[in-house]
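User: quick one - fold this with glutamic acid bound?
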Amino acid sequence: MNLPLLPSYISKENIGPWHIFLQQVEQVAPLLDKSLQPWVETLRRPKRSLIVDVPIRLDNGEIVHFEGYRVHHNTSRGPGKGGVRFHQDVTLSEVMALSGWMTIKNAVVNVPFGGAKGGIRVDPRLLSQSELERLTRRYTSEISSMIGPDKDIPAPDMNTNAQVMAWMMDTYSMGEGRTVTGVVTGKPLSLGGSLGRQDATGRGVFVTAREAASKMNLPIAGARVAIQGFGNVGEATARMFVQAGARVVAIQDVSGTVVNAAGLDLAALKRYQLENRTLSGAPDCELVANEDFWSVPCEFMVPAALESQINRFNADRITARIVVEGANGPTTPEADSILAERGIVVVPDVIANAGGVTVSYFEWVQDFSNFFWSEEEINARLERIMSDAFNAIWQMSQARSMPLRSAAFVIGCSRVLEARAIRGLYP
Ligand code: GLU
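Assistant: Sure. Structure tokens for the protein plus glutamic acid:
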């Protein structure tokens, strides 16, 4: 049957990150097993998407409205799972794409979850702590029909943290009339959070970088690293690279770009950023134009901020041997081709940043069993899952001569569609 290709909610001109996700699915669709072909369309359509109005009263008495979203991209392999993002540029298209990447990511590391994501279109820097709490609680209440410990389990993402998860857990629990710790992950330790969750995404980024480097005979000790983003992911990644003997020579955040060819003092930089809410003026480094970040001489580049940062305008300037995607969707398909032509290896988001959701899975299991593991056990299990998953992707990419992203998508999409096919169509 000849069906229209674009669903009603996207226009041809401006379809945003969701279009990038669709392009990535399109690239691997022909590479999937023939038996799965009838089910590919499943990946092109989120299962359900919710847009909610989130009104709050500001501290000055004024009432303001924000737009919130929660999308279940796919639940074939288990309940939805994915973070909640607070950012002024969040759109439905972005949340759809992020939920799609969660579907693939969760399948790649083989945790028993589907893919989901949520967000609020808000600049949280403009809100007080109590306004942020009211925003989080009202949003949680508005999406409560979508979430639950065996339905869809939110977690932190950009500009959300353990405190926000605690408010979400409390709000959901009040509605249920009992404490439901397993409804969100990334919670504080005192509320059923997991040891190792805070650093998990950065640890996973580092582990996949290390595995890729060892395949390419590139030593980490002495290597130069450039990191975009100095939040939860960027900071932990930087720290782990330095612990392994590398030098972080450039860091960019929303406020600017700092470089030091001898290696930045990460602890001092973080302190400065927290105190001053900017990197500008930080000691022992040079502030350079944001554009110059991309051409900094380095062996590893870690985009750990927003989508589409590596694109056709800067991909030809990157000097790194390996790009490790700490962010979700940081490289456009056009940039992927440019980097491939230049022999730069891209470790894709769906494996590189899967450490966060992997330890989220551990947290969820611990909450269900009410039995908590040691940090050593968590980190050891995380390392094993990440390096095994990376090695499977590497092997497929070698065996079938395809980029790591395609190999990861083939593995992830196959797992999702196998589950979909064997479940069959309801009714
Ligand atoms: N927001 C993180 C991600 O993009 C973690 C999601 C989770 O733990 O559910 O992978």
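One thing worth noting: The pocket of glutamic acid is lined by residues 81-83, 155, 157, 185-186, 328, 353, 356-357, 360 (CB under 6 Å).
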